[in-house]
Structure formats: C-alpha cells, structure tokens
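INFO batch 0412 | record 1 of 1 | parsing
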Amino acid sequence: MKTIEYDRGKAVLYAKKWALGANPNFYHFGGIGGDCTNFVSQCLLAGEAVMNYNPLGWFYKSLFDRSASWSGVEFLQNFLLSNSSVGPFGREERLENLQLGDIIFLRQNKFRFNHSLIITKIENGQIFVCAHSDDSLDRPLSSYNFIEMQGVHIEGIRTF
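INFO prediction complete | emitting tokens
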C-alpha cells in the first residue's frame, strides 16, 4: 500500500461547482435525512480519494450499494479518523490549523454530530465552507449554530 497526496484544489473546485446543485451521478439524499455527508464524500472523491469497498469502508455504487460512511455523518467522521486501509484518512485538528479541502463536523443537538462541511475558502483567518442539506457556497463557518465542532485534516489517500 502507498500513500498519495489529497488534491485539495480538485476537492474545492468540485465543492464550488456542486454546492448549489446535485451531481446526477450520485443519489441526492435531501429527502431522506440530508445530503451533507454524501456531498462531502463526493468532494473527497474528486480530490483523488480511492474508494474502500470493505463493508465497513467508504464507497458508493448506488443508493442501495454504498457504505454507511459515504452518507452518514458519524460514520464518515469515524472512518476518516480510524482508517488504516485504502481510502482517505485524517486526524483531528484545531480550527486554525485546517486547510482548504479539510472537513468540519458539527454537532447541532445534544445527541450526535449531524452535519458535514468542506472548507473552500480561508480569508483573513475566517473559514468559509460549502455544504448540502442547506445548500451553501462559501458560507462563513461563523454563521452556523452548533454545540460542538470537530475539524479533520485530510492527511492523504492510501491506495494499492
């Protein structure tokens, strides 16, 4: 297995292109629980991420053939932070150390993390994100209401 660089530029370009619309190559989960993590997974894929077809991995073939981590907030969060196999991997990082293409998870209720965002602009220390569910293009992170936030720095992509 080897590690390749995550292409942050491609991930951000994809995020900006599809922030206010849905790529027809992927199911849009808006009507069945939210599309935020599906969107972030697509951005990771655009950044050269390799799918991990293990049942507990990270992949998308169709609405009915995908991993929980492709479209579930806490499942993607767990996958990125614990993945030692094929696919994207990252580490928890402080907000001020995050970069373009990194991921932010929000907990907006007392029960669990429930929203995924991708960083698409950093200007004068302010972070801007793209997201789905409440479709957003370069929305200031400071405009979100949340109880807890976790930043994940994407360290790379493992491949064969």
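INFO post-check: The two ends are 5 Å apart (CA to CA).
INFO record closed
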